[in-house]
Design goal:
Among the domains are: 51 residues; 79 residues, Valyl-tRNA synthetase, C-terminal domain (Helix Hairpins, Orthogonal Bundle), CATH 1.10.287.380. It is 49% helix and 18% strand. The protein is built from 21 helices and 18 strands. Helix 2 packs across helix 7. The model has no long low-confidence stretch (mean pLDDT 83).
């Protein structure tokens, strides 16, 4: 439960949140939406206690825990990944305290006055350790890390500094999910996830028993996850108790109604003002004039709600290209010993809108750079078709901006026939309005530079767009306008994006990099998902049939060799299983004995015998150490199967 009352916050003279009241019931799943700069991150930070309001309060029960995932990279201590996760969960400190208390107990005499107090401390710490699932922590960590795309068998012991920024954000998310707080505050949680990890996170959040408040520009994520929507607009909050899809309909109806009421009120005010001006100096109308003036004074003036952006943008016409726009032949890429992909062959033809997809690390951005001819392949070649003029966008493209220019000057440097007013409209679409357009490029954030670069690409006279995550820094409305512009674009598009809804409505073909190879699918993103699942299922069936057919065709020698290999594998697995069984039995036995001792330590008769208590405490400490070691050994063996 969260009770927000009269919440306001100012940054200098700018009032971001104005007297907000918001009551959040337990187990809510809320999508927090609004324009860039509306205060979404600010309100999450206020709830998390990381920022103080100018006025008002955020009330939560004292025993309620809050987990906050910020949008920007947080500092992560450089220790092995599993140690970091344990530390974030507070288990490392608890474990040290338990061991310290156990050492104290082993040194205390039977008649020590400290014995009872020390026993009580141990019992309290042990309950906390169990409440945090200390003994099952590593198993739970492996499940969550796998869901987020890690390879626990090699990543668990890796130092956190070895991971890239995107993977560090996944580590931060994993640590948050492992802590399983009562309230999860997520600021753009899908920014660094691939499609498979996003789907896993959606499933995890649907099963989560606590409260979730999430900020996201991923429409599909919100559609699948939220049960209500909180919209920040002009410093106020509007609550919609419905799905995200229904919110979009209700919001448009609400805006239409408010703006109609605004128009009616303006007409009423203007009519009243005309009456007052006309009859102000006529004594016969004095009473009526005064009555109308009082009406105006008492009237609560309505505010117009900003309508959805409706700027329509069209790409400049570019020369018509040949039929074959881009051809990749036998492309391979290897970095030292790491082979990213091999044998990539495909042709993209004029007018196609193609998505390139794959898990993080599959090589999507690498392939785009090779196709853009800004990075050489290890093998193979890329051929551009007749009269092809390409434009390339990536997060690094912002480095090509002139940092001495203002935003408007940078747009003016493009070869375009657009008038200045049209350029200002375009910049407004990309969230630059008023005096913003006179800001120097050098003072802009990374996201703002990316939006300027994207605006410049829209002005380029290209007939092939190669786009790497172009929607990362766009709000919903800008994203929709950008999508409409791409749908109207007369050229060819190759795009990488983790925004599934954006791709679904845009592309007519999907290329997937999987396990170092390229797979080609016709249709939109949803059709690709269906076809991929069927393809994987068919491949598995064919492999089984192939193995079955080949058995009868094999020579005696082949059968002998394969039988030996099977037997060797069986023997190896049998050895592992033989080791696992006694471990499992020992763990069960130790846990059973641990429960017995815990029950005994609650018995008044036992507690009256300090020597017996001391013996039991020592045995309990040994059991916990044994259980921990056996679980670790079990995990290592299980991964080998």
């Amino acid at each position: 439960m969260i009770d927000i009352r009269g919440l306001s916050i100012n940054f200098g003279e700018q009032e971001v949140l104005k007297n907000i009241d918001w009551f959040i019931t337990p187990k809510s799943r809320i999508g927090l939406v609004g324009d860039n700069g509306a205060g979404k991150t600010t309100i999450l930070r206020l709830i998390a206690g990381e920022q103080e309001p100018t006025d008002g309060s955020v009330f939560m029960p004292k025993n309620q825990t809050v987990g906050y995932l910020p949008q920007d990279l947080i500092e992560i201590e450089n220790i092995p990944l599993i140690n970091y996760l344990k530390k974030r969960a507070g288990l490392d400190l608890l474990d040290k305290k338990l061991r310290a208390v156990e050492r104290e107990l082993s040194l205390l005499s039977e008649d020590s006055k400290l014995l009872e107090k020390t026993l009580s401390r141990h019992e309290h710490l042990q309950k906390k350790f169990e409440a945090k699932e200390g003994f099952n922590f590593e198993i739970k960590a492996i499940q969550i890390l796998k869901g987020l795309g890690f390879h626990p068998e090699k990543d668990l012991e890796r130092m956190t500094a070895e991971f890239s920024g995107g993977w560090k954000m996944r580590i931060a998310l994993a640590s948050l999910l492992l802590c399983s707080p009562d309230i999860l505050l997520l600021d753009e949680p899908t920014n660094h996830l691939d499609t498979e990890s996003m789907e896993w996170l959606e499933s995890w959040l649907r099963d989560f028993k606590g409260t979730v408040i999430a900020v996201s520009h991923d429409r599909r994520f919100l559609e699948k996850m939220v049960t209500s929507v909180a919209e920040l607009s002009f410093g106020k909050i509007n609550i919609y108790s419905c799905s995200y899809e229904k919110y979009l309909i209700e919001r448009n109806e609400r805006i239409k109604k408010i703006n109609e009421e605004f128009t009616q009120q303006r007409e009423k005010i203007e009519e009243t003002q005309r009456f007052v001006e006309r009859f102000r100096y006529k004594s016969s109308k004095a009473a009526q004039v005064q009555s109308r003036i009082k009406q105006l004074e008492k009237m609560e003036v309505k505010e117009i709600v900003k309508p959805l952006k409706s700027i329509k943008f069209k790409f400049p016409e570019a020369p018509r290209s040949g039929l074959d726009v881009l051809k990749a032949q036998a492309l391979s890429k290897t970095y030292e010993t790491n082979e990213v992909f091999e044998g990539v062959d495909f042709t993209i033809q004029r007018g196609e809108r193609v998505a390139l997809v794959g898990v993080n690390g599959a090589g999507k951005s690498t392939l785009l750079r090779i196709l853009n001819q800004s990075e050489p392949p290890t093998e193979g070649e890329v051929t551009l078709g007749h009269k092809v003029k390409k434009a390339f966008f990536s997060q690094e493209s912002a480095q090509n901006l002139n940092y001495n220019h203002t935003i408007l000057q940078e747009l003016n440097s493009c070869d375009t026939s657009l008038l200045e007013g049209e350029k200002r409209n375009l910049l407004g679409t990309f969230l630059f309005s008023g005096d913003d357009i006179n800001k120097n490029i050098s003072v802009l954030s990374g996201g703002e530079k990316s939006r300027v670069t994207l605006a410049k690409i829209l002005l380029s006279k290209s007939n092939l767009l190669i786009l790497d995550e172009p929607t990362n820094h766009l709000d919903f409305e800008t994203k929709e306008l950008f999508q409409k512009a791409l749908l109207d674009y007369g050229g060819t598009i190759l795009i990488v994006s983790h925004d599934r809804a954006f791709l679904d409505n845009l592309v007519d073909r999907v290329l997937e990099i999987r396990d170092g190879h390229l797979f080609d699918y016709s249709g939109n993103y949803s059709e690709f998902i269906e076809k991929r699942e069927k393809q994987i299922k068919d491949i598995n069936i064919k492999n089984i049939e192939k193995k079955t057919e080949s058995v009868s065709e094999k020579t005696k020698e082949q059968k002998r060799i394969e039988a030996e290999a099977r037997n060797r594998l069986y023997r190896e697995n049998k050895k592992i299983l033989e080791k696992l069984e006694p471990l499992e039995n020992q763990i069960a036995e130790d846990e059973s004995r641990k429960e017995e001792i815990s029950a005994m330590l609650c018995d008044a008769e036992v507690l009256s015998n300090s020597k017996r208590v001391q013996e039991l405490m020592i045995e309990l400490g040994e059991l916990e150490e044994s259980i921990k070691e056996n679980y670790e050994e079990w995990d290592k063996l299980a991964l080998k199967l």
